[in-house]
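dumping this here so i dont lose it
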């Protein structure tokens, strides 16, 4: 009796097991089988847990720096798959793989380690493949690789090593994944994530690469240094015409050798955009600029895109600010999206480089004293006093508590006004009596502070909404015998940046000389294997 009962229980158990296995087999089969002939992965179900993640990064050590972040996103989702649904790569996964396979469009010349395994997933023959835990975790790692490279760029420490001190906003892409899962298109439409100049440069990069692909960027040979004036004829005119057409400065081109008015207007605009002496002459300087290899222009755009990654997207929402770009020797005062003032500037010479940082403009100081820095006293003034006992008096200077300062007046090195945004670098904006320097193309002459071509105009704009400051009062302040301090009611952000390429509001690309020779070092960092 007991034997029969045991036999009956065994039959029932086997039947239940067979029924259960038959019901579950299709689902298990769908999650575990690749097209066997070409998969670089071993087939298995998507099983993600802490052990699987540790094992994965042991197997793929070149991306182990993403391990903690990958742990975080799966822990938050109870270790459920993120990139696949019903055995198929979901919309966000497909978009991420496509974006990552075209990083060159983002100005990057690198690939993620193990990229070939990810590329395999996008092959047309793999539409029905089913993933495993390796593919799941590899795409998760790709997500952090992509957001790091495209949205954040080089790490803060590297940017600081490259003398960039504008504060960077921290961003968690662990939490941002929730947003992307709900709205995958945000991975492409990410203008809220980036400084808007980045997208303008991205368009310019595409255009320059198309020019490079055409293979028409041949050197322009100018046999002598004599400028070519409007009305003259020359083969050089034809070559300049072709080059400016390629760059978009001429809507159409002809085979004419004659230098006509239409071409002269393009020459004038090109010179203005590149910070050259503005006139309508075709000079050897202009030709040298047009002969810069297109590959060099592309590199300039790529490093400028990288520097854009170091600027918080919050910058897009700042309603009023002052922006100084060192390589362009230009300052712009922007308010409510409009440029209220554009001014040439003089920046620090190579031995006294102007620092790249940001601050808050707080004070306008009329008729300022110039408190001479100790370095200048030691290197320049003390030796001069030894040679000439009347040096201080002749330069309107005086001793002040053991230091030297220059008294207010038209000969003061700071001119009639200075603008203070307190900072540890002791850098500020100021007027100068040396107006002739603004006529130079390259204007790196100062000891580090920034001289303005239009300081009077800037001061007026900053105080004009204050009813107590009439034009008469303002003019007296400029010519006082003592300093007069004015405190702004609202502090104004000041950004000092370094961009050797820039796209303006009209979509024109500007290129500038790398005055402090910083681009190549950044290029080297960008080309390193990550």
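and the seq i came up w/
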């Amino acid at each position: 009796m007991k034997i029969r009962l045991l036999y009956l229980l065994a039959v029932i158990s086997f039947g239940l097991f067979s029924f259960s296995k038959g019901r579950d087999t299709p689902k298990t089969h769908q999650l575990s089988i690749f097209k066997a002939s070409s998969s670089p992965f071993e087939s298995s179900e998507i099983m993600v847990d802490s052990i699987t993640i540790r094992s994965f990064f042991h197997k793929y050590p070149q991306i182990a720096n993403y391990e903690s972040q990958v742990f975080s996103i799966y822990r938050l989702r109870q270790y459920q798959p993120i990139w696949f649904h019903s055995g198929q790569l979901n919309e966000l996964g497909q978009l991420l793989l496509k974006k990552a396979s075209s990083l060159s469009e983002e100005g990057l010349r690198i690939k993620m380690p193990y990229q070939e395994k990810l590329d395999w997933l996008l092959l047309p023959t793999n539409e029905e493949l089913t993933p495993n835990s390796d593919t799941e975790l590899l795409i998760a790692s790709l997500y952090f690789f992509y957001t790091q490279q495209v949205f954040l760029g080089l790490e803060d420490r590297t940017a600081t090593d490259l003398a960039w001190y504008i504060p960077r906003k921290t961003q968690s892409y662990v939490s941002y994944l929730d947003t992307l899962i709900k709205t995958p298109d945000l991975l492409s439409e990410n203008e809220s994530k980036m400084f808007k100049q980045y997208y303008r440069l991205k368009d310019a990069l595409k255009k320059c690469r198309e020019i490079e692909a055409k293979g028409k960027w041949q050197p322009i040979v100018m046999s002598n240094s004599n400028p070519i004036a409007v009305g003259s004829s020359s083969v050089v005119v034809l070559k300049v015409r072709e080059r400016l057409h390629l760059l978009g400065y001429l809507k159409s081109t002809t085979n004419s050798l004659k230098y006509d008015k239409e071409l002269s207007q393009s020459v004038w605009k090109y010179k203005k955009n590149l910070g050259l002496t503005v006139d309508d002459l075709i000079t050897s300087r202009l030709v040298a600029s047009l002969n810069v290899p297109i590959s060099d222009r592309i590199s300039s755009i790529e490093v400028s895109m990288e520097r854009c990654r170091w600027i918080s997207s919050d910058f897009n929402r700042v309603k009023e600010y002052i922006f100084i770009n060192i390589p362009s020797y230009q300052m712009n005062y922007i308010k409510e999206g409009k440029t209220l003032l554009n001014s040439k500037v003089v920046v620090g010479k190579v031995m006294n480089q102007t620092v790249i940082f940001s601050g808050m403009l707080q004070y306008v100081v009329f008729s300022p004293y110039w408190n001479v820095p100790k370095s200048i006293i030691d290197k320049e003034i003390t030796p001069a006093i030894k040679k000439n006992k009347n040096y201080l008096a002749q330069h309107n200077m005086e001793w002040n508590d053991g230091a030297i300062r220059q008294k207010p007046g038209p000969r003061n090195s700071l001119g009639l006004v200075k603008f203070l945004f307190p900072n540890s670098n002791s850098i500020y904006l100021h007027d100068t009596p040396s107006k002739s320097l603004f006529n130079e193309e390259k204007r790196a002459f100062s000891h580090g502070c920034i001289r303005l071509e239009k300081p009077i105009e800037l001061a007026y704009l900053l105080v004009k909404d204050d009813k107590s400051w009439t034009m008469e009062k303002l003019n007296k302040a400029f010519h006082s015998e003592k300093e007069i301090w004015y405190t702004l009611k609202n502090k104004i952000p000041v950004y000092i940046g370094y961009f050797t390429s820039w796209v303006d509001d009209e979509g024109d690309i500007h290129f500038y000389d790398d005055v402090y020779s910083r681009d190549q070092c950044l290029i080297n960092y960008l080309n390193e294997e990550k």
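The first helix runs from residue 2 to 32.
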